[in-house]
Amino acid sequence: MTVQVGDSVKTRKAHACGSNLWTVVRVGADFKLKCAKCGRVVMLSSEKFYKAVKTIDGK
Q1: What gap in Å lies between CA 44 and CA 42, rounded to an integer?
Q2: Cβ contacts of residue 47 below 8 Å, gap of 6+?
Q3: Alpha carbon distance 56, 12 (integer Å)
Q4: What is 1-41 written as a DSSP string?
Q5: Is the dihedral of CA 30, 32, 35, 39 positive or negative?
């Protein structure tokens, strides 16, 4: 599973705002995601990221 900056990601659980769509902002040892609905930025370790992701949509 390869992820690039700018990809849209759908998570298994919804964010507190109700959205489960995120945009990848940073890729590396950890991932930075931005919520598509409220704009909140979250950082996850790669292990937690791959566990939380359901689908990855390219640009």
Answers
A1: 7
A2: none
A3: 12
A4: ----TT-EEEESS--TTS--EEEEEE-SSEEEEEETTT--E
A5: positive
First to last CA, the chain: 15
Residue 11's CB: how many other CB atoms inside 10 A? 19
pLDDT the model gives residue 59: 60
pLDDT band of residue 2 (cuts 50, 70, 90) is confident
**Distance between CA atoms of residues 10 and 21, nearest Å:** 5
* Residue position matching structure tokens 């937690």: 48
Q: What is the mean pLDDT of the segment spanning 17-38?
A: 96
